[in-house]
Amino acid sequence: METTNTSGITFEIDFLKVYRVSGNKKRKSSFQKLEMKSTYTYKMPSKIYNSHSVYLVYVLPKFVLGSKEKLKLQELNGRRKIVLKTTMNKK
Q1: Which Pfam families match (predicted)?
Q2: Closest CA relative to residue 58, chosen from 37, 81, 34, 76
Q3: What are 65-74's pLDDT values in tens digits?
């Protein structure tokens, strides 16, 4: 994965999490958000400096990708976060 910081401020990474989401948020009784643990990470940075890009590898167990899968990168001691949504290509 590649991430670029264009905010003008150094982004200090607190965590990177992937969630499996199923159900309907409107009906909370059927909504589930389960965290997936990585099996391997490589070159996970602690900071992304302004105007810099970083490459990292985040390996997860094999699973079928759903339309609501999200990747969340949270800032350490801050409020900023990056949420990447996935899309499926239909052929």
Answers
A1: DUF4138 (PF13595)
A2: 37
A3: 666 666 677 7
Cα separation, 57 vs 50, whole angstroms: 21
The single-letter code of the amino acid at 79 is R
Bridge-based pairing of strands 70-75 and 81-85 is antiparallel
Tokens for 41?
A: 């990470």
- Asked whether the beta carbons of 12 and 77 are under 8 A apart, the reply is yes
Closest CA to 54 of 9, 1, 90: 1
Write out pLDDT tens, residues 15-64. Answer: 877 777 776 666 666 777 788 888 998 998 889 999 999 998 988 888 77
